[in-house]
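Aim 2 progress update. The chain analyzed this quarter is reproduced below.
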Amino acid sequence: MKKISILLLSFTMLLGTTACESELDLIPQGAPSSGNFWKTPADAKAGVNAIYALYSDDNMYGRGFFWLNNASDDIGTKPRQNAERIKNFIVDGSESDTKDIWRLHYEVMKRCNDVLRNIPNIPLEEKTKKMMLGEAYFNHAVMHLELAYHYGDDRAGIPIQDRNDPTNVYVPRAKNVAENYAYIAADLVKAADLLPYFSELTADNYGRAHKTAAWAYLVRTYLYAKDWDNAIKYANMVVNSGKHALLPNFEDVFKIKNNWSSEYIWSVTSSADNTSLGSIFPGVCLEDKGWGAYNGWGNFYPTKELFDAYDPADKRRSATILQKGDSFMYFGQLVTFNEGKYVVSSSNRTGYQFKKYMEPFGYAKTTSGGIDIRYVNANGDKPSTALNVPLLRYADVILMLAEAKLKKGQSADTEINLIRNRAGLTSISGATLTDLKRERRCELAGEWTDRHFDLVRWGDAEATYAKPLHHYNGTVIYPARNFNPAIHHVWPIPPDEIAVSKGALSQNKGW
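Predicted structure tokens:
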């Protein structure tokens, strides 16, 4: 990872010298690359690594779409105007916290298309060329999928960039999101054919795309497309590959030493050598101001509704959520949550905190009293850590397989019980969709799997959001909300993107 980290910094500087940033800001589908680039193997390497550079952007996997997941019943957010607007579905797409998500995703897709268009013409060893092309297909598909289900539906999809002509930037929306899903699936199939298994990568290339990650994203794509047969097919390919397994202890999944464990499929990668890279999400979830020891941002907290969803015997609850009276390690000291010096701040709406991402903050400070930068970035204004933040892990694949099988009327007991047994819960028989929904919620709480859109695609959002949300002491922190499934199943496209599209983009109906 040290080598990749250094390369990413150089690519960021490279992009600043080879493209007009103001033009990129204005054109939603991206601007053409410099004609002086894409000549040598070094150019190819730089271009591919540039794809990954934006993953660490605060508005990507630092916060980004998680602001929109704030709509879910699992999340309480410290008082912020935009967070309140999101929670109550009264956004217009111009909110400062979320308006850049669309642009950043399309910029990554543009970089992927630059690779796909130019690398075939560069003299490269065939194995290297296949890997680079596979990485581009994969990352394009991940970005494309995230935008597709957030903004597209059966009335209109999202624009599909012109892969062959980068000057054709004013691309209209796809006829419907099914067109997007088909395009995404085709890219992922190509990626899987080109990419090696993760086990075939050398350590300095960990964090790059690999075969089972492509298959896993095919599962997610087909789940959103409601193509249960293909979701089952590709989930079984991941399972039968023998490359992945659940760790015996759920809590261990979220430890730095297990960044690349058998449960790893795809994450925002971090580096113990340079924690200024990677996702700031662990620091974003840390208690606001970090009790004076570190600049936690305190943006997202678990609700009582999420806490109560767990069986008291479920080991995942204490590994996922800190409640009043819980002990935890904080910069080398065993402390008690929400008691004494560690009482939560007034900006904590729920009285809980996510524990999943706390391990990096458990290590002692240096002898001089500074932050140990092997684990946490010393700059609290960029609170990244050495912990990978998972975007899709093996347990998710198991649960998606279970969901697809249940939708087909098949038994999913094996899959459901794999997840339950690891959590210390007894096996069940005749598992239903209700069981699946509970396991998915408890397993993936506070992760980037997007609880809000689980509720949307299950058709449960309207009824769920009609109920208030609570502080741990039972007081209401959010009253019942009005979710209109004819409008709020997608989010509004940022008006700035519509304004510069020369009529190519239209807003989602009702927003």
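The longest strand covers residues 264-268. The first helix runs from residue 2 to 18. These observations will guide the mutagenesis experiments scheduled for the next reporting period.
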